[in-house]
Write a structure and sequence with these properties.
Layout (H helix, E strand, L loop, with lengths): L1 H8 L24 E7 L21 H8 L2 E7 L4 H10 L27 H7 L3 E6 L18 E4 L10 H9 L7 H7 L2 E6 L5 E5 L2 H24 L4 E6 L21 H22 L6 E7 L36 H4 E2 L1 E4 L8 E8 L3 H9 L15 H4 L10 E6 L2 E7 L2 E13 L7 E15 L14 H20 L15
Helix pairs in contact: 2-8, 7-8
Amino acid sequence: MFIKRMLIGMLAISISAPVVFAQQTPSANQKKPNVVFILADNVGYGDMGPYGGGELRGAPTPRTEELAKSGVKLTQYLVEPACTPSRAALMTGQYSIRNGLSLVAETGTPSTLPGKAYTMGKLFKDAGYATAIFGKWHLGASPQSLPGAHGFDQYYGLPPDVSWDSATYVAQAIQTHSYPNLPDKVLYEKGPWITQQKGNGPLQRVKPFTMEVRAEIDNELTEKSIAFMKQENAAGKPFFLYLPFSMGHSPNLSSKQFAGKSRIGQYGDKLMEGDYHVGQIMDALKEMNIEDNTILVFASDNGSTGQYMMTYDRLGLGAPDMGSNGPFRGDLGEATEGAVRTFCFIRWPGHIAPNTTSYSMFSTMDFMPTFAAILGAKLPTDRAIDGVNQLDMLTGKSKTGNREHLMSFIGADLVAVRWKQWRMYFRDMNRTGTGQQMLGGIAANSVPMYYPKVYNIEMDPHEDLQLVNYESIAVNAFKVIQEYLASVNKFPNPPPANLTNFNQR
């Protein structure tokens, strides 16, 4: 009856508690570290070599293995179910629902980052850093949502409200003769373009985002990133580089150098290419003699598309475009462990011990307060910050991290709560393909349960054995929810966007 009463008392919610952390200020003579954050797109836990992928998956990743040996490998790096929510959480240190971004951003919808958001770009800009993003923003194309409005000095990449597969839009129209009276040139003019922004200036179109550009885009992003680092290093200015690659996202068209190099098709080719580009960044830092004063992060935004992509071949390329989420159940968009748990490596010589593995929970939201602690910066107090400072765990001062729970949302729905090694689901999910629930992304419709389902993730990573006696676990999970609801009363969430209810913020 206890569980029933608690469940009945729960409303349809979106949820996590604000966290207070101790500020750590660097000494006056300590040089500010550069920060390079490389983000893969839809690459799963089981794809990279240090997690059991790599050569065993038919796609060697030697440079990533080198990176893992030079820093820490996180085994419980937790994100949000899909790309926009996860990137919003990374940039703000908040659950994506705090900014109305708990669904995938779609062109023409109000799913866009509010101007009042405090982002990682602003954090580093306020600390005197040169800042740049080369790649995928995906947090909205409204003027108040662009990277330049959030602390980035320069931006080059996709239109900020579309994803990497937008390169296929024109190709599909040509292939299917959808607009038989329009020349290809006109179609490309109306399709997606590579864009750039200098400071907070207007967004400028550079060139049509064709399939040929898509295949070579990560080469271009890497070249621009290295040029940016060299320029700022020569100027004696610390830099924050955010490099969100196309690596892993359909269609995985690799450059000519890597086409056909793996044993598992185009997805494996792209893994190998991404690994190569990570190595180029590492080599550039070494060449400039700044690798010891640079924090290098390589992570993924969410789990892979997995089994779903076995039968998905939009352009008839004839090869499965799928990744591996290792031992965990579920794929991108589902709020399951396989969707929200992926790889992450962090290197900071002299501060993070080499060749170490952490088994502590670490959320993508935790980077914001952790970087703030490194910089001696203060985060805003007029909003909830869901990330926690994990600096002591990373530097070995603490054997355990500061996180023991995480909530997962899809839209306005709280789907699951992870508390320590247990995962509790409040809604059943069924894959539906493209649909309203994810605003154009791979969707999972959710249906509320009368009783939650609970699994021990450590004992049962694939979630095959549902627990029966879980009252003590439920008490702690509901405590997390109550703390979150209290924070929402203090700092209300905006209404999440959907395809039928355009509540403007």
